[in-house]
Amino acid sequence: MKMMMVICSGHLEENLDEWLNEELENFMEDDYLVFDCPGQIELFSHVLVLKNFVEHLQRKNINVCVVYLLDSQFITDVTKFISGCMASLSAMVQLELPHVNILSKMDFVTRKRDIEELVSIF
């Protein structure tokens, strides 16, 4: 599945000037567009697809920012949490965009003590 996303993103990258430009013309100036890449860190860590896509949008004078969602289950294990933070940092460095990190799915954390321990660290 992940490889399919990389292939599809590569196809999108090859057709930015044609297909994407036509689609972007259908949006108003104050519209928000959301591009979701769930779990696809390889799109910015191993290949330049996402970076090229962002640069294309910026050339079109479209403001771009990143919202990085990190699954809250990562806070139950320190090594997982550090790994998730490093992946987020990698996105920040690679994409060079305004960036917001969010712990998602907080309702799935069964041990509330994990949240308290994490907050006490920071």
What this model shows, in words?
With 122 residues, this protein is mostly helical. The chain folds into 2 domains: 1-21 and 39-64, no CATH class; 65-122, no CATH class. It contains 6 helices and 2 strands, in the order H-H-H-H-E-H-E-H. The chain has a two-stranded parallel ribbon with strand order 1-2. Helix 1 (2-14) runs parallel beside helix 4 (49-59). The radius of gyration is 17 Å and the shape is elongated. The mean pLDDT is 80.
Key structural traits:
122 residues, mainly alpha, elongated, two-stranded parallel sheet, 2 domains, single chain
Q: What is the topology, as strand order, of the major beta sheet?
A: 1-2
Which structural category do the helix and sheet elements fall into?
mainly alpha
CA-to-CA gap between the ends? 36 Å
Overall geometry:
elongated
Number of structurally distinct domains: 2
Task: Point out poorly predicted stretches.
Answer: none
What is the ordering of alpha helices and beta strands?
HHHHEHEH
| Biggest beta-sheet profile | 2 strands, parallel
Question: What is Rg?
Answer: 17 Å
The proportion of residues in beta strands is 5-15%
Number of helices: 6
Mean pLDDT: 80
Helix content: 40-55%
Number of β-strand runs: 2
